Amino acid sequence: MNSMPILSLITFLPLAGVLLLFFLPKESKGLLRSIALIVSLVVFVVSLPIVTGFQTNAEFQFNEFAPWIAAGPFQMNYSVGIDGISLWLVILTTFIMPIAILSTWTAVEERVKEYMICLLLLETGMLGAFISLDLFLFYVFWEIMLIPMYFIIGIWGGKNKIYAALKFFIYTFLGSVLMLVALLVLYFKAGAGDFNLMKFYELSLDPATQTWMFLAFALAFAIKVPMFPLHTWLPDAHTEAPTAGSVILAAIMLKMGTYGFVRFAMPLFPNATEQFTPLIATLSVIGIIYAALVAMVQEDVKKLVAYSSVAHLGFVMLGVFALNQQGVAGGMLQMINHGISTGALFLIVGFIYERRHTRLIADFGGLSKQMPVFATIFMIVTLSSIGLPGTNGFVGEFLVLIGAYESSLRWYALIATSGVILSAVYMLWMFQRVMFGELNNPKNQELKDLNAREVVIMIPLLVMIFWMGIYPTPFIEKMTPAIDKVIAYSKGKKLAAALQQAIPSAPGPAVMQPAILESK
Amino acid sequence: MNQLTLIPILPLIGFLVNGLLGSRLPRWLVSVVACGLPALSFALTLSLFMGIASNGTPVIENLFTWGSTTGFQVDAALYFDQMAAVMCLVVTGVGTLIHIYSVGYMSHDRSFSRYFAYLNLFLFFMLMLVLGKNILMLFAGWEGVGIASYLLIGFWFEDPDKTAAGLKAFVVNRVGDTAFIIAAFLIFHFAGTLDFQGINAFFSASQPSLLMMNVIGILLLIGACGKSAQIPLHVWLPDAMAGPTPVSALIHAATMVTAGVYLLSRLSGVFLHAPGAMAVVAWGGALTAFLGATMGLTQYNLKKVLAYSTMSQIGFMFMACGLGAFQVAFFHLYTHAFFKACLFLGAGAVIHALHGEEDMRNMGALAKKIPFSFATFLLASLALCGVPPFAGFFSKDEILWSAWSSPNGSPVLWLVGTVTSFMTAFYMFRAIFLTFFGPCNVPEKVKKGIHEGPPSMSIVLGVLAFFSLVAGFVGLPGFWRELLGVSAPFYDFLAPVLGHAGEGAAADHHAEFILMVIAVLAALSGIFLAWLFYSRNRDWAVKAKEIAGHAHGLASRGYYFDPLYGRLVAAFDWVSESLLARRVEPAINNAIIEKPADGVSRTASIFSRLQTGNVQGYVLYVLVGLALILWWGVAHV
Lengths: 520, 637
Known about the structure:
The structure holds two protein chains of two kinds. Chain A is mainly alpha-helical. Chain A is built from 23 helices and three strands.
């Protein structure tokens, strides 16, 4: 396959950037920002070959393998690779990062050096987590991710930054400790050795063990998603975080939770997955409706967007647990869509916050007249967020709902569908209170429309909104085989075996354990 | 790119050009782009129409695969059959005319190019709705016209009332859309496809239980009710009159609001096997026709009279659909597009002349001041009232005849329709007498400047009035066909898609003639009464209003639908604000985060020291923690 260790390259390039930044003087803010931006752009460019070189099949690709830590009975390996599930999440990460960094240009003036270091460190953590095929490695990256985000909120955040950062940290950390325990139990159940994910997939666990382990994993992931009722850290974290932090948190880090379900919790514990599907679906649907209702009455634009995230992620969870092609594909697409649309929304909130230093809806009104370019972009993003056909938001929601409808989650799908009405209400109502009406606040009468840098930030997002909305096929196509595999695993081993028989071109063991065989 | 694809794409190009560059282009160029591209679409439609009229083969264009997963595939594909052809001609034809009219009407507006960008965008989505080969394409257009409508209703966005009207329209529509999309899921569940031809073929070959068919039918009906302003989802239409008047003519009279009828006809294959749903469609249509007309009787805002009238007329179309006479519904849709657009644009001419005045009590005696606008308005009104030989007469009469003669029809349905016809004639001529005759109540200042609109407006009025007069001749009722020895090209053309249901077999021309005479008499007496009450003896109108008392209050307040929905919204607001946001959310936060956090306050205090920025210390802590847990793991296996 590919001889260049491309995944390692993109994961550790930001780390190299961090090293470089260490040696630069604190005062040259422009240089620091430029270097960080260039690094993230390079990462994005370097990551593109994984799309063009991706073979549309269920196997892990671009694999790399190296023994890492061997401590007593423990054998941790550096084993990475991507399949159709992680492919787009990796690309989403490398795509969002330059945008996030460019958005900080004038927003952050204090401790620029540390800020850039945190952002790049975060990128390494997130990319590492998406590409890990070794559970322990995954856990390490998962934890690495937490630290820079904690600082981003705690240092560059708003008034209640300490409270929000702590809440974010304790909460997610508690979850991940539980996951670690489960991970170790799993490890010992598998008879020690290494933490290879493929090995764990093949494991047959008794239902009782599965239940406990699923719960531990699910809790860690559900906090991250966040699922109702574990979502209350999110509005605080978002409101307090600086713009770039919110963008990354919403666009990528929340996906860590849903990705965790698809990659780990569901395929590893099929019986428990079946057992907990009604619970998860119930919480997802409650989340969709509840978050939408709470979003409706928010006075702070950013908080409103944060609650909309909870609702959107509810759709993702519903689709994923439908466990059929449409549902999972829809859920996966919705993850990417949410990354783009909600990322864009947080950027938009950042634009007006930077100008007016307030995010209260009541402080605005009539901005359309003063900022026509901004108004147009805001409108498009809003429409994408409410899932208008022709924008990316629709594709995900539609597939999720039709998938859920075709699965055992039919009645849940019916309720979730009505969430679509609510999203139109809270988003458009917010939009018109901010953008329409008379421009009677003198402070708003001098607002400047978006500058070139800000437009440049938004254009790639707008392109993606329409591309994925009008022609989503290329995105779906590459995921399909990997999704089939996840579904087969998550429905239990028997089905997995049946699937292998049904597809003669994909002989059994090769599908399961490509990572080690190929890279050696 | 072939002809069919270009039909929707051309207005999209217009939208992009005017939307992105419009503010920098001279107005004449904006107008040329905005009117020229739809006109080209119309020309293309016409040429395709000629093709299908001669050879009868639908044109299909597969653009690309929109999305496909195992067991599910939807193509972005266009489909031009007889039904789409008629609808497409109406949309591009009337659409182009209204664009031209708008050049004059909007000439003083600051946001000239934005207006035309939105209008072109609307046409694009409307054409996608009409030409979509599957439910998904139609739905995309369906939602798209909703957003275009939202943008145009709230076009003057500095007025919060106008943007609120836009939001109301969008949200009410979304309620309907939700039912629609659920219906689509159900259809997919059974038929395994979203393709219209596939769906109709599937359901005519095999049906799930009758109950399920009716459920699907009712869900589709709810969707159609939202878009077509049928009771109980009609509340947005009167408010939608906040938009510029040409918008009301195009979107809220001629094209978008009839999309519901189009949907029902497109899926006639489903409805024909859902008798229960069909009955609801028919009676619901009749109810809307009747109540819409009563509300129209009581309005003083000229545009709102027309809005309720539109609702009522679409009620007639639904009634025809429910009776299985889809082709008749379509015929009324087609004639209605001309005369209702003409009426709205005529109202626009009046409003334009009076600098934005919409209340009929502040009008009067305008017939002499703007005679041409008055003449066209009168012609279109006669068409709406169903006076022969105007277009509306033939289409409405056929619906009434279906109500009487169709197997699912009943004399009661016919009676409701006929009484509605009578009321229609009354409210239209009430509007005419209040607006164009009697004493002039226009303020002196405005009076001097009253003038006909620019040629671009008058020409369009003329063309539409002409069609209001002649459009009906292509679909003469059976009785007339026999009498004159001619055919009905409209019905013949649609026959391959919608069949000849409700005709021929039980053609009792004697009864048909009698009913027709009654209908005409009803219309004429409505006109006569309006003359009596609003021209000859205006006191009578006041007295009648007093006598009607509560009934009048009920109708003029729209049967309290708005306050009722207001309560519902308030209830939602209470749940959101007072219950969830203020109580539940803090409680969850407290129970799940704060309390446990207190419990581990020592841990928290350790963390809080870390926010000084001591990264190394933190990492060390994590590693120590990890080691401890690892040790625990080893020890406990």
